[in-house]
Each structure stands twice: as structure tokens, then as C-alpha cells.
Task: structure prediction
Amino acid sequence: MSEIRASSVTPGTPQPTSPTGAAEREFTVKERSQFQQAVRRFLRHRLAVASLVVFILIVLLAFVGPLLWKYTYTDITPDNSQPPSLAHPFGTDSLGHDGFAQVLRGLQQSVKVALCIALVASTLGVVWGGISGYYKGLADSVLMRFADLVLTIPAIALAAALGSTGGGTWWMIALILGGLSAPLVARAVRGVVLSLREQEFVEAARALGASDTRIILRHLVPNAFAVVIVYATLLVASGILAETALSYIGFGVHSPDTSLGLLISQAQSAVQTRPWLFYFPGLFIILIALTVNFIGDGLRDALDPRQTRQRR
Amino acid sequence: MLAYVIRRVFMSIPILFGSTILVFLIVKFSGDPLEGLKLRNPPPPPQTILNEERRLRLDQPLWEQYWLWLKNLVLHGDFGPSVHSNMNIGNELGDRLLVTLRLVLVSVLIALIFAVITGVVSAVKQYSVTDYSFTFLGFLFLAMPSFWFAILLKSAGIAYNQATGTQTFFTIGDKSPFLVDDSAWGNIKDIAGHMVLPTIALGLISYAAWSRFQRAAMLEVLNSDYVRLARAKGLRSRQVLVRHALRTALIPLTTVTALDIAALLGGAVITERVFQWHGLGEFLLTSIAGRDAYAMMGWLLVSAIIVIIFNLIADLMYSVLDPRIRYE
Amino acid sequence: MTAEINIQSGRKAGDGAAVLEVENLTVEFPTEDGVVQAVRGVSYRLAPGEAMGIVGESGSGKSVTSMAIMGLLPKTARISGSVRFRGEELLGRSENEYAAVRGKKIAMIFQDPLTSLNPVYTVGRQIAEAILAHNDVSKKAAMDRAVELLATVGIPFPEQRANNYPHEMSGGMRQRVVIAIAMANDPDVIIADEPTTALDVTVQAQVLEALEAARAATGAALVLITHDLGVIAGHADRICVMYAGKLVEKGTVDQVFYEPRMPYTLGLLGSLPRLDEGGRERLTPIVGSPPSLMNLPPGCPFTPRCPLAQPVCEEREPDLYATDAPAHLSACHFHEKLVGVSAAQLFRPTSVDTEGVTPRDLEVQQ
Result:
């Protein structure tokens, strides 16, 4: 089997970067070609590319749509409980709110929260896991025990408890959920750093007298980047699901503002009478989570070809 | 083995301890549990408020409150006073634990069985139409908000009942308030009937994640050297598949299942909300809304213990399944 | 000298009593980037009891050839040609028909003993399983036989060892267990794919000894795949040299070792340290690296690395030509020019890193 693998690997297949401190220029050249190869591999993943296009369209819709649409999410139109029509493509609720305007606003809030969750969680997770993996010893024990602790408690309980204080602003929710997801990223980053720091090129850099900061920034971070970017992508998907769930149980975004989860929560008693209020926000959640997961899959294949072979 | 279990139990105490402190602080800073009482109109007599403060130990310093809670819990099994003066947190938790555990355990079991089957079929028939269909369904289920799917299931159940004029699916509560057939069998049938839709709703996401995982694990094992040797020995494909591939590919799934238990308890909160079950989830949500600190800590303790027990079971399973792991 | 006896057994193969005949075997793997031609028309015959070595660099297709013979390649592989066991065609059989041959008629030993055994079963059980797959005996009888087999391959305290899990054994022990599995059903052919490569040098000899014991006990013919010419010299009668998915030289051990007629073989021998030359000869590496098996250009695939290369080499791939010696074949247009040539005369001794170097680079340097 090993031979099949060996022969199917073309000479140009990138190996994990193993830059040595001595050949700085070569290192940058190598990195760019690696980046280009990753882009090439990603583009070959047709589903991921299509998902990326759809996801970008959804984000555009969320942020540009409300500026162009004739109603805002607070407008009360004279039409109550209308099924979808040309005037109201997503129908209206019993008060006369335009469904499309409401979904656009909910989409905007949910996407904003989800993207922030990914940002917060991966930033915090990289620092957390990086310190833990690099310094090992006491710092590592304390940080990892704390990560265990956070992960033992069902996230939704902590988020709900914290969310009940936060007053339901979108950025508070993003901070809370991001913080609660950070231990996951921290664990992954720690694992990568632990294995990397034992590798020859890091030892070589250390032997050449490179400082800790330099080793972390120049050698460990770029190599952990692939893992983090994949995690961050998948966190967008789990983030949007967490936000909508939190809003559904009443500890997320509050009325009069709205989110996709809150819209579903408000529509749950009307599934049979006004199903359009229930289905449209749900479909958007599914669409976002689905496309983001596909993008994450494509990214993983593009950034870590070794893992692909194992997975497929 | 026993020594290992005992050591593990002791090792989990700091986690329990730490998580109760964490939750205690969060609840304490989340607001005043007597806010509702104080804002009542006409205002209650000041003595009532003072009494309530004393009963909830709010007159004590923060660390003293926590210490009292811990001491009473360890010495007397007392979970502390609830905001609702007539509620005993310990008893309430016990009742609700049975309800929620029933939901979670059955969901885990069903999700595991289906996940292993689809994972194995997908891996064996890699890149076939079956594989692609399962993969697509897996991605779809992973992308579906659990509450949305639960509401959908519930309304589908209601629609079916209406269309057929029967009570095929139970969509509200964990059991009927009163039963015509109050025998043991009648009760079991009633409880099982109420469980159908919620367990599907709760198990679906775990199923999706686990079947993806099982497929990957299976593929890895199918490409392993020892499966190749098993084939080279002349074993039939079925023997290779079951005895060598599946047997080893099950090992990592035990860990993943245990790790997901916390998330499942979180998922139960939502499922119970949709189907209006009186389980731990509902208990949590009312406690948070009422800023009921001791109730929340009780809830937390119970769920953390469940998580820890599941992890312990998974570790023991691991050592049974994999002879390379031996706990001293 | 055992060579003479071996030549005789080689002749016997020519008489039509071959136990294994591989004819024009071709294996291709379609990949995203194109088709990988892993094996390109390999043919050989194996006489009963004979030991044949296949040498070549990794990626030359040696393992794929034997996996194709065993029917163990993934379904995506496109296999053509013919593999006959005692005259019966094996290619195209269903998985379960093939299973009846595997282990029973042809057994295989793999490279890495650390991963070849299933970690969750005892070694005794894994040997017994091989016996039970082909024989209608009780589990008890199979276990007893497993213990016997462990003793045959030289494992001390076989009764106790049978109850060990693979991780409780050293690499050398595990490889002996794999050998015991291979000989469990008294096969007619044993294919050993780099059986000692993953092992310490000190253990290699023991494992080869166990392999010899297995041959002696079963009388099986042996296909020994390795890149270690030393192993071949001691344990094979005939040699096939493989390069870029093709056999490029075939002959007896003496023919190939002392009168190689293919520049690649010469290069292989030149890169081998020799004690019998008084340590005065310098090693002569082959510069460059083997070609990618995807989109191979026409002509001899060794051309870019060959010091003898002429324009004709880039145009036409040579067949296996008969040389002056009987049953000694070489796939080189200029095999006649190689008579009496030593590696040092053809390849230049060098001490630089040879991975990215071509013969031309060396000329410029000097």
C-alpha cells in the first residue's frame, strides 16, 4: 500500500513546511507556492466553491438587503398574516410585519454573531492553546484543567446563565458563545504545538538562538494556521446554531431586535396556520450551516492533504 | 481496575468543585433573585423581604454562602434553599433526572446503532450512491437547528394525528397526566409513546456526527495493514469486515460518544422545551430565569456528574475493547 | 556454491511445471492528476520450491505486483494480463473465490510487522484464524497447531507466547508470527514483501532464518521482494530487477551479481558497500531519482539517469533481450557493451547529495 501512495504523490505535493532559519528567502517563496497550491486544491473542490459563492451571497443579502428592501423589520404593514406574495415574498405575521424584512434583519444579526463567535473563539483559542502547548508545565496544567472544566458544563447552560445578565445585545452573545467555544480550539492548537515543538526545525531554530517569541510567531503559528482556519470555519456553523438555539430558549437576542432563532421561536405555535414564518428562517439557518460546513471540508482538504487521504 | 476507578472519581472532585464555584459566581453576578418580590405592587412589607434574604442566605458574605451550601450538601445532602420556598431542590432534581436520563440514554443508543450501521455501509461502499446519500443526509442533519427540526417533527406528529383522527404520536409532555389503563404495561406504553418524537429529535444530530466519524474510522481500518493481512490469510469478506475492521473501528467511537454527552444534555434542554417535558432542562431554564442560584448549582452538579460517569464508562469500555490500554 | 542446484530448479520451471505464472501483468491507478502506471507488463514463472528475488527502489512496482497476484489491490486499480496458479487463472475471480486461494495456496508476508497484526487479538488466535479459514478443525486443534507453528518459527515458550497480544512482542517476534501465519496452511508459494526492512539489523537474520524454516517445513516456493541485495544474495536462486514498473533484468544470482547487463543493475551493485573488494572501491551512487509513473515518456525510463544513454533510448523502450548466458535477460539496447564493465567504470564515485543531480551536472563539475 505504501508504494501506491508514494507513487500517486506527484513531486510537487507540498510537505509540511519545514523552514530552517538560515534560508529565509527560500522560505517565503515556498510559502507562496504552498498557498497557491492550497487555493488550487480548494478550487477543485466544486461543492466547497459553490458553497462559498452561496455563503457570500447570503452575507451580502444580510447586510445590503435591508438597505434596498422597501420595508424595515419594525415596519407594520396593513397586511396581517398574509401568505407569501409579490408584495411580501416571505409573507407577513399577525401584526403585519413584513416577513422578508424580518428574515433579513434576523439573518444579519445571526451572521454577525456567528462570525464574531468564530473570531473570538479562534483568537482566544490560539493564545490559550499556544501558551499551553509551548510552555507546558504548570501553565499548561492550569489552562487545560480550566478548559476541561468549561467543557464539562453543557455550553448552553453557561451561555443561558451568562446571557440572562447580558441584556441580549448581539455582541455580548457573541463574546459569551465565542469564549465557551475557545477551549475546543485551544485543545486542538495545543496538540499541534506540542507535536511541532518537538520537530527538528524548531530544535534547529532554538539551537540557532531564536527567541521564544520568534519561534512561536515564525514557526509554530504558521504551521498551526491550517488547523485554526478549519476550526474557525466550522465554528461559524456551530456558532449560528448555538446563537439561534440560545435565542430560541429566550436567552439570546431579545425582541424588539430579532434573530433567526427568535423568529422561529415566535413562529413555533403557527407552524400549521402560518408556516411561512417558520420555514424561511429555518431554511436560512440550514443554508448557512450547510455551506459553511462544506467550505470547511474543502479548506481541510486544501490545507492538509495528508488528512484528506485518511478521511476519504 | 477498581483502584483506577476510585482514583478517577477522586480526580474528578476538583472539576466538580471548580464548576460549582464558576456557576455560583455567574449566578450571583447575574442579578438579584428578589428583584421580582421587591418590584411587586403594592410593595411587600420590608420584613418579608428581610425574611426572604435570610432564608436565601443573601445576608451572608459571598464566600460564606458558598461554604454553607457546600457544607450542607456534603453533610446533610441538602441542596440549599430555592427561590420558590415550597420546592426541595434535591427531590425535584431526582424526579427530573429520571425523565431526562430516559430521553438522553435512549437517544444515545438509537443514534449509536444507526450511526454504526450507516458509517460501516458508507465506508464499505465508498463513493457509491448509498455513500453519497448518507453523506449528504449527514451534512444536512448537522446543519439543521435541533429546535427547528423538533418543532417540525412535533407539527408533523400533530398533522398525522389530525389527518387520521388517532392519537398515534404524543407531542406534549413526558407522560399522560392520567391514564385509562393504569397498569404497569399501560404506563410503559404511555411513556414509550411520548418518547418517540423527542428521542428522534435529540438523537438526530449525534447520529449525523457519529456516522461521519464511524465512516472515517472504518475507512482508516479498512486501509490498515492488519485488515490486509486478514484478507491475505484467506478470511471471507464478511469475517474480515466484522471481526477485524468493525471490531477495531468501534474503539474510537466510545471516546467520541462520551465527549458528546455534555452537548447532549444541552440538547435535551431544547428538546424538552419543544415537547414540554418536565425534565432537567426545564428545571434549568426556570432556575436561570428566576436567578435561583442553588437550583442552578444543583442542576450543574447533576449534569457534571453524569458527564463524568459517562467519561469513566467510556474509559473502561476502551480498556475492554483495546488490550493495549490497561488501567492499573 | 548453491547456485548450480538452483539453476537446475530454474530449468524445471521452463518445463511447464510452474507453480506460479505471471504474464504481462499491468496495473494502473486512475488518480485526479492522471493515470499512474504502477506495473507495466511484468512476466515471470516460479517453479515449485524455487526462491526468486525481486529487487528495486521503492515505487518501482514490486509490492504492487505481488498485491495484484494476491488480489489485494483496491477496486480502483485497473489490472490486466494473467496470473496463473498451477495453470488456473486467478485474475477476475470474485472476492470469495480469491479468498480460497489466499493463505491456502499463496501466502504473503508484509513489510511492517508492527502494523500487520490486529492489536485487539492474541497472536495465537490470529494464527488459529488462518488455519480455521481453510480447514474444518476444532478451535482447540487450531490453537494447538498455532503453538506448534510458533515453535517452528523459533519463538521461545510458544504456549505462553500464543496468549500474548501483538503489542507485548518485539518487532522481530511479530514478524515471526506473521511468518507462522503464512505457513499455517502449507502454501505452495510464499510472497515476502520486504520482510526485514522495518527491522533492526540484528533481528533481520533471525527473521530470515524463520523464513527459511517456514520454507523447509512447507516446501513452498518463495518470492522475496526487497531492496536489500545482501538479503537476495543469501536467500534467492534467481533475481528479477525492477525499475519503473518493469522487469529490466532477469537471471540467476550469479549472473546478475557478477555479469549485470543493465546499467541500472550495475548502478545498484555499485552503490552497495562490499567487503570482498578490500574496501578500496568507492561507492558509485546512481544520480537523480526514479521517474514519476504518471505520463511516462516513450523510451527507456532509466534514460535520464543512465550514463550510456543514446538518442535511441529516448525513442524506444527496450524489450527484455536474451544475453549470451542462458535465461539471462536484460532490457537495455546496449546490453552487449556491458560485458566486463564494472560499476566504477560506468558511474562516477561522488559524495555530493545526488537527489537533484543529473549525469550532465557531474560532467560540468569535473
About this structure: The CA atoms of residues 6 and 333 of chain C lie 28 Å apart.
